Amino acid sequence: MGSLNNLHSFTASVARGGRGYIVFRGARRQPEQDLELYEFESCPFCRKVRDVMSELDLCYISHPCPRGSANRKKVVALGGRSMYPFLVDPNTGRQMYESEEIITYLCETYGNGRSIVARALSVVNTSSAALASVVRPRGGHVRGEAEGSREQPAQRLELYNFEASPYCRKVREALCELNLDYKVHNVAKRSARRPHLVARGGKMMVPYLIDPNHGVEMYESDEIIAYLQRTYGSEGH
């Protein structure tokens, strides 16, 4: 089953054309405070924004908002609508819906702008993101006891990740379905953050989970998922 799951996740990366695999050469600066993204894994519009976050080498806080998550109420309280993705940038005070507006904002604020070609291809971009969601629709619903206003861990989990990795996708799906907020350290190819991961974990491999609540740090997607289920799923209650 593990191999089939990996292959299935890989097909979503293929459908997406490998977006989120490599950092844009135009990525130029990091925000002082973490961006916050309210999103969920199976949403094609959220996928587009996560791709660009990876390509701009941006860290961010993911607030998963699958069906059944209390984070949906937070989005309504902040922005007035239950619509995703929703970006909060504490560095500029900006809050916004609409994936295309978010992408343009990120490229202009933390990159070298968004090209005319990229804007023109936005329909194709959305179509391939939707195809990836059809191929791999995981991460759209909260599982069992994680539904509703679950108590978040005292310290936020952290995930070294890049968007195109099929193994990282599996872990993001699990975090989403368990309704767990987490910090994303993007480490796509050419990322300036890759040496930090090697220094911390000993090798350049993703995903890499850090759980400061239990002093756990680990590689290997299947082991991470099993750990999350034991610790924060129904097995951990």
Q: Which key phrases capture this entry?
A:
alpha+beta, eight-stranded mixed beta sheet, 14% strand, 237 residues, Glutaredoxin
Percent range for helical residues? Answer: 40-55%
- Which radius of gyration do the C-alpha atoms yield? 17 Å
Major beta sheet summary: 8 strands, mixed
Distance between the termini: 26 Å
- Strand order in the sheet with the most strands: 4-3-1-2-6-5-7-8
Low-pLDDT stretches: none
CATH C-level label: Alpha Beta
Number of helices: 9
CATH architecture: 3-Layer(aba) Sandwich
H and E order: HEHEHEEHHHEHEHEEH
Give the percentage of residues in beta strands: 5-15%
SSE topology:
Layout: H1 2-15, E1 35-39, H2 44-55, E2 60-64, H3 71-79, E3 86-89, E4 94-96, H4 99-110, H5 116-120, H6 122-135, E5 157-161, H7 166-177, E6 182-186, H8 194-201, E7 208-211, E8 216-218, H9 221-232
Parallel strand pairs: 1-2, 5-6
Antiparallel strand pairs: 1-3, 2-6, 3-4, 5-7, 7-8
Description:
It is built from 9 helices and 8 strands. It is globular, with a radius of gyration of 17 Å. The model has no long low-confidence stretch (mean pLDDT 91). It has an 8-stranded mixed sheet, sandwiched between helices. It has 237 residues and is α+β, with helices and mostly antiparallel strands. The chain has one domain: 3-Layer(aba) Sandwich (Glutaredoxin), CATH 3.40.30. The chain starts with a helix and ends in a 5-residue tail after the last helix. Helices cover 41% and strands 14% of the residues. Helix 1 runs antiparallel to helix 6, helix 1 packs across helix 7 and helix 7 packs parallel to helix 9.
